[in-house]
Automatic annotation (TrEMBL):
PROSITE patterns: SRP54 (PS00300)
Domain annotation SRP54-type proteins GTP-binding: ranges: 290-303
Family per similarity comment: Belongs to the GTP-binding SRP family. FtsY subfamily.
Pfam families in the record: SRP54, SRP54_N
Protein name, entry field: Signal recognition particle receptor FtsY
InterPro entries in alphabetical order: AAA+_ATPase, P-loop_NTPase, Signal_recog_particl_SRP54_hlx, SR_rcpt_FtsY, SRP/SRP_N, SRP54_GTPase_dom, SRP54_N_sf
Catalysed reactions, as listed in the record: GTP + H2O = GDP + phosphate + H(+)
SMART domains membership: AAA, SRP54, SRP54_N
Annotated EC: 3.6.5.4
GO cellular component, one term: plasma membrane
Any one Gene Ontology BP term: SRP-dependent cotranslational protein targeting to membrane
Protein's gene: ftsY
SUPFAM superfamilies, alphabetized: Domain of the SRP/SRP receptor G-proteins, P-loop containing nucleoside triphosphate hydrolases
Length: 320
């Protein structure tokens, strides 16, 4: 590994540790209280642990899975001390994440067997969708890839303007039309332009309203159908952006969008400002959709490729 790679990895890990600080402090504090006065993992400790996980926004179903796994280990090993609980939890959560996430990725890359690679981004307004698109464009460009943005959220003028700001900031082309235009038409123009420019990556923004799920489903289906007229088989990826700070509400958003369209990957944002980072574990497990990116700060490099090993390490690490 080169010295630069080591430095970058260290900086990334420090950013992740800082971004998860509130979640970690809250979780480990609750965990300490759950085992106070206990010497071994018994039914009382497991009941307390269940409460800790649920209150840390891991989600009920995922919590029950984790408790079942720990109960199995207690039964097998006969005696487990509470001082081992941190290690066991760490292992079981990492195991759970492994079932959905390959989790060893560290770089912003896309398969380029066919160009362009098309990402359609979905999510409700206010979750950090536009910011995520901008930071993705920045990261892909940094890898030497040619990126084109498509402003297909034509429902709000602000959405088009915000994406334009990011396009200017990152210095990548953007295809847009006026507010109220047909989103599918914007997507068509974006892919057509990307082909002419020999672009590597296309990122399409879409409307974030959920007030009428039927309309949303129809709109997203139409956008996909029109894109396929330009490049067969697109989009290659449907990325759902969720606000981690909303905790259980993020579960509901994931539920609605997975019903409305075929979501293939997730980005969980705003983890730095919340103690609800456990939601990453629950959402990854419950929806069986890989978490691909996490947002742990406001900086351009604070959108990170999700790495389960680093995440779990930061989640459980204690300050020296």
């Amino acid at each position: 590994m080169s010295l630069f790679k080591k430095i970058f990895s260290t900086q990334k890990k420090e950013s992740l540790d800082k971004g998860l600080e509130k979640t970690k402090t809250n979780f480990l504090s609750k965990l300490s209280k759950a085992v106070v006065g206990k010497s071994k993992v018994d039914d009382d400790v497991l009941d307390n642990l269940e409460e800790v996980l649920v209150s840390s926004d891991v989600g009920v179903n995922t919590t029950l899975k984790i408790i079942d796994r720990i109960e199995a280990r207690v039964s097998k090993d006969k005696y487990l001390g509470v001082d081992e609980l941190n290690v066991i939890l760490r292992e079981e959560i990492a195991g759970l994440l492994s079932e959905t996430n390959s989790g060893n990725e560290t770089e912003f890359t896309v398969p380029l067997a066919r160009k362009p690679y098309v990402i359609m981004v979905v999510g409700v307004n206010g979750v950090g969708k536009t910011t995520t698109i901008g930071k993705l464009a920045y990261q892909f460009k940094k890898q030497g890839l040619k990126v084109v943005l498509g402003a297909a959220d034509t429902f709000r003028a602000a959405a088009i303007d915000q994406l334009q700001v990011w396009a200017d900031r990152v210095e990548v082309p953007i295809i847009k039309q006026n507010m109220g235009s047909d989103p599918a038409s914007v997507a068509f123009d974006t892919l057509s332009s990307a082909l002419k420019q020999n672009a590597d990556v296309v990122i399409i923004d879409t409307a974030g309203r959920l007030h009428n799920k039927v309309n949303l489903m129809n709109e997203l289906t139409k956008v996909k159908r029109v894109m396929q007229k330009v490049v067969e088989g697109t989009p290659d990826e449907v990325l759902l952006v969720l606000d981690g700070s909303t905790g259980q509400n993020a579960f509901e958003q994931a539920k609605q969008f997975t019903k409305a369209t075929e979501v293939t990957s997730l980005a969980v944002t705003k983890l730095d400002g919340t103690a609800k980072g456990g939601v990453v574990i629950g959402i990854s497990d419950q929806f069986q959709i890989p978490v691909k990116y996490i947002g742990v700060g406001e900086g351009m490099d604070d959108l990170q490729v999700f790495n389960k090993v680093e995440f779990v390490d930061s989640f459980f690490s204690k300050k020296e």
